[in-house]
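Backbones bend. We report:
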Amino acid sequence: MNELLGKTFYGNTIFEWMVAAGGILLSILIAKTVYWLIGHFIKKITENTKNRFDDILVDMLEEPIVFTMIITGIWYSLHLLRLSDLVESILAKSYYVLIIFTAAWVVTRLVDAILETYLVPYVKESEGKLDDQLLPIVRKGFKLSVWAIAIIVALDNAGYDVKAVLASLGIGGLALALAAKDTVANLFGSFTIFVDKPFVVGDRVKVKGYDGFVREVGIRSTRLQTLDGRMVTIPNQFVANESIINVTSEPSRKITMDLGLTYDTTPQKMEQAMQTLRQIAQAHPNVEEKIVTAFTEFLDSALNIRFIYYIKKGAPVFDTQNDINMEILRNFNDLGLEFAFPTHTVYTKTA
C-alpha cells in the first residue's frame, strides 16, 4: 500500500495527489455547509429584525462568499503539490482573475442591495414616472462600469498589455460609433429627455406632428399612443430636438368658438345672445370663471360673436364641449336667435 501511495505522477506522489484532492473536496464541503447555515439560520435571524437591509444583504452576498471559499480552498490545495513554473503561473493568474471577478460580483450585489432597500421604495412612492425608468438604466450602467474595470484589472494581472488592448478598443469603438451614429444620437436624446423631463409617461403631448399619450420612454425611442389608438415609435434624437407641446401640463383647456347670427338680429338680441353664452358657461361645473364674449366682426353673411371659455384641468374636454354646445343650441332656438349660413342675393333686371 505504501509503495502504491509513494508512486510518482507528474512530480507528485499518489498520496500528495490524494491530499490535494481531499483538500478541494473539503473546501467544497465547508462551502456547502456555510451555504446551508446561511439559508437555515442566518436568514432566519435577519428575518426577525426590523431592518430589511440585512435580509437583502445576506441574500445578495451568500453566493459570492461560498464561491470565494471554494476557489480559496482549491488554491491552497493545489499549492500542496510540486508544480512546474508554467502551471504555477497559470494557476496564480487564474486565481487572481477569479478573485477580481468575485470582488466585482460582490460590489455589484452590495450596491444592488443598497438600491433595493433605500432607493427603489423612494422611486415607487414618487409622483414622477421618469425616475422609475431611469433607475434600471443607472443600475445597468453601474454594473457595466464595475465589470469593465474588473476585466481591465484582470487582464493586467494576467500579463496582457492593457494599454494596447484599450488602444485597439478605442479605434474599434471609434469605427463603431461612426457606424452607429444614429444609435448614439438616440442615446444622448434619451439622456436629454431624462434630464429635462419635458413629459412623463402618461402625459398627452404633441411632437413631430403626432398628438398622443406617452406610453414608454426607452433608451432608443419614445412610444406614443395617438388619439385614434395607434402606437407611434419616435427616435429619441428627434424628440430631444423637436418643440414639444405638453397638453397635460396646461392649467386649463381654452375653447374658442365663433357663432354667426343672421343680419336681421337686433342689437338687443345680440346682447341677449352674449349674456346667454356667459350664463351657460358659468352654470357648468367644469368651466372656469374666466369667460369672454364679444361682438367681433361683420362678416359677409353673419354677425360674428367670439365666445371663449376655459375647461378646468382634469375635466373631460369632449363631454364639457358637448354639454355647452347642446345648451347653446337649445337656448338660441328658444330665444329665436338664428344662426347664419352663407347666402347670396341675386338681382335680376328685365328688359
